[in-house]
Amino acid sequence: MAGDLPKATAGGRTKSDEKSQNILSAAAKLFLEKGFERASMEAIAKEAGVSKQTVYSHFGSKEQLYQQVIYHKIQVYGLNALEDFQSDDLKNSLIAFGHHFVELVTDPEVMNMFRIVIAESTSFPKIAQLFYESGPQNTLNVLSQYLKQTLDEHQLNGHQPLQMAIAFANLLKGDMYLKSMMCLDYPRQPQDLQNHIHFAVNTFLKAFNLEHV
Questions:
Q1: Is 77 helix (H, G, I), strand (E, B) or coil?
Q2: What pLDDT is recorded for position 76?
Q3: Which of 52, 89, 112, 147 would be a feasible disulfide site paired with 161, CB 3.0-4.6 Å?
Q4: Which residues contact 4 (CB under 8 A, 6 or more apart)?
Q5: DSSP letter string over 136-196?
Q6: Is the Cβ–Cβ distance between 6 and 14 less than 8 Å?
Q7: Is the pLDDT assigned to residue 13 strictly greater than 90?
């Protein structure tokens, strides 16, 4: 009947939501296995157990689906919105962001996706652009927006919030990110990661004279 609400599944999600999630999971799997170019919408539909028309009705194009796969991963780690990590204290907010960020950039799926993007970037530069805009750029924009809202002009001291966000992200990556990209071992015990994040936060605050904010 027209105007009826979509039927909900046992978990409270609508069938449409469930199909979207199945498509995202199938797409992530095939993008990782085959890369963007060779992962066809037909194969993604088959993996998700839906028709190709259903995939297009939910996501419009393979490019949009690719973007949503990346954005969904950011959502999982709570880096897509300010309220996911901000508090009344700048240092505590940065520490919370740092934990989410480090978990994201060392996630094996994210690392594998990044390696595929690098391998395909020469032949398919548009895919690298989509990855950057949906992932790293989106996360940096959220952090820079937080810094802009939290700090006044005096505290910014002429620095652009986006420049500051990039500096902090690079401190968080450190040597650990390069090693994980090359599948090399690095200290990953909770205490090791906590020490690394606190070092990055303290260094950032000192570099931009924000230790007493």
A1: coil
A2: 85
A3: 147
A4: none
A5: HHHHHHHHHHHHHHHS-HHHHTT--HHHHHHHHHHHHHHHHHHHHHTT-----SHHHHHHH
A6: yes
A7: no
Within 10 angstroms of residue 39's Cβ, the number of other Cβ atoms is: 23
CA angle 83, 190, 202 (to 5 degrees): 60
DSSP tag of 50: S
* Cβ-based neighbours of 131, under 8 Å, separated by 6 or more: 66, 70, 113, 114, 117
Q: What tokens does 3 get?
A: 């105007």
Residue pLDDT, tens place only, 131-165: 999 899 999 999 999 999 999 989 999 999 999 99
**The tokens of 88 are what?**
């009344």
Alpha-carbon gap, residue 83 to 185, rounded angstroms: 33
C-alpha–C-alpha distance, residues 75 and 94, integer Å: 18
Q: What are the tens digits of pLDDT across the range 68-111?
A: 999 888 888 878 777 777 778 999 999 999 999 999 998 988 89
Read off the tokens for 110. Answer: 């994210």
140, 165 Cβ separation under 8 angstroms: yes
For residue 94, which of 60, 138, 142, 61 has the smallest C-alpha distance?
142
Nearest to 185 by CA among 194, 175, 195: 175
Confidence (pLDDT) at 27 = 95
